[in-house]
Amino acid sequence: ATMPPLLSAIANAGRHGVLAKSAVVMERLGRVDAVALDKTGTLTEGAPYVTDVRPLPGHGLDEDALLALAAAAEHPSEHPLARAVVDAARARRLTLADAAGFTSAPGLGVSATVAGHTVRVGSPARLLAPGGALADGGVRDAVRELEDAGRTAVAVLRDGAPVGVLGVSDRLRPGAAAAVAALAELTGRSPVLLTGDNARAAGRLAAEVGITDVRAGLLPQDKVAAVREWQDAGRTVLAVGDGVNDAPALAAADSGVAMGRAGSDLTLETADAVVVRDELAALPAVVRLSRRARRLVV
Ligand code: ADP
Ligand code: MG
């Protein structure tokens, strides 16, 4: 017996390393005409590494002490940046104190009690903006310098005071530019980059892959708002992401696809389909074969 077209499309998607959860998913993927891509862990490999460790003077912390403090707080987090910080501490063979009362805010950072201190690690724009802690010229300059170099700056606060900044870098996935071009051709418009990261690092990376429409500094709900905006304009949106911060946007989109290997559990659960082989080329491939299947069904 021959398989119905949408079911054989599922099988074909599997061959491209995409696990689609249902035939309905394949049908929807075939109608997509706008694509929203996350940055960290989606366009990039999601295996970022720490490039800079900068303690601010006057807090009694050297590089190792700053890194150990940040890593202790990040230890329970599954965010790629958290893994980068913990790996860097391990590489220096630092001993990490136990963290208590860990909390994480998607798109923002983490908080925990380490050795009796409240430690927060995360987005400088978000952690330092309100209340004028950014008025501390030392942090502002360190953050700006790192971001100008295309890095993601991570702020470390102890009991509310900025005590240092970490610089993190991440490699583009191979084939990112080609996948962006293929998606642009398929949908008739260039994909858009939605990221919680800073505008400078995001803009630099977007230029490398041929994306001109970048929305940076977004919280999870801002990513949802962007998706809804396009839907309201009549578009059928494919959102691709890997982190818990992407899960709401994936759920709001007509099609939500998770980049698998680095993906968080919540994102994998929320997604309609998962790119298990971690290749961006799978995205245009699966849109193409879903369209073919739809033509056979309709
Ligand atoms: P993206 O949208 O590019 O995948 P995220 O939304 O996951 O990025 O993160 C946005 C920003 O929030 C990061 O650039 C970082 O500044 C901050 N952030 C989020 N989680 C963490 C964490 N666990 N440790 C440090 N910074 C974090
Ligand atoms: Mg991400």
Task: Give the helix level as a range of percent.
Answer: 40-55%
Number of helices: 13
Q: Note the beta-strand portion.
A: 15-25%
- Rg, nearest Å: 20 Å
What is the strand tally?
13
- The total tally of domains equals 2
CATH classification class of the largest domain: Alpha Beta
Overall geometric form: elongated
| Average of per-residue pLDDT values | 92
What is the name of the CATH architecture of the largest domain?
3-Layer(aba) Sandwich
**Relevant CATH superfamily of the largest domain:** HAD superfamily/HAD-like
- From the N-terminal CA to the C-terminal CA, the straight-line distance is 20 Å
Organism: Streptomyces armeniacus
Family: Belongs to the cation transport ATPase (P-type) (TC 3.A.3) family. Type IB subfamily.
Protein name: Heavy metal translocating P-type ATPase
Subcellular location: Cell membrane
